[in-house]
Design a protein that fits this description.
There is one protein chain. The protein is α/β, with parallel strands linked by helices. The protein has one domain: Alpha-Beta Complex (putative 2-phosphosulfolactate phosphatase). The protein has 10 helices and 11 strands. The strands form 3 sheets. It has a 5-stranded parallel beta sheet with strand order 7-2-8-1-9, with helices on both faces. The protein has a 4-stranded mixed beta sheet with strand order 3-6-4-5, sandwiched between helices. Strand 10 and strand 11 form a beta hairpin. The chain is globular and about 50 Å long. It starts with a strand and ends with a strand.
Length: 242
Amino acid sequence: MEVITSLVPYQVGYFPCQRFDVVAIIDVLRATTTLLFAVKAEAKRIIPVATVDEAFEIKYELTSENVLLCGERGGEIVPGFDLGNSPLEYTPEKVKGKTLIYASTNGSVLMRRAESLSDKIFLVSLRNITAAADRIVSTAPKRMLIACAGKEGMSSLEDTYAAGFLIDKLRSMTDVELVEDGGNIAYTIFKYFGLDAMRVFESSVHGRYLRDELGLEKDLELAAEIDADNIVPMLVSGEVVG
């Protein structure tokens, strides 16, 4: 299987006319972690959008549904939204049976960019990384893209690490050919940190921001729980499903 790894989100724009058998979206802090919690909490629908304005527009269109606006800018809840981007907020009491319109700074934007690249798009976090690798390999792909959301258009240490971790998992299950150096960089970073995800977060700019500026250390702890879940959300027809 050929694997291309995009460490920054704008690289996804280089593939507008290309197709992949599988795309893996990674935004460990926090979109792919948080949306896993939303799926577990049995949200009725989850609609990722690229902008805050789009979120409000879709809410006004869905007048017959129980809609929650969800997401963040700069790590904090958007004014007028119902939920932010902490996995702790996405409990059955708050989201079960409801439609979530989700706008995050990085993750939901990347989902929208990538949705034309494959019919199989998986959301990968550290919490489901083995399950995600299993699902990917089960589809017998010949060519896949690992797409990291990064931070505000730039690379992030935590997503690059998770990409390398996914490559390591895939290599244990099937033959993997890294056809460019993004994958080599990610794999090297994973081998350096090993299974110490909290050390990754403590070393990353975004991890330190969430912990030190916003007091969200519990979010980091949840995101660092490797293989805590076996659910692998997918992006299907513009919506996240379990």
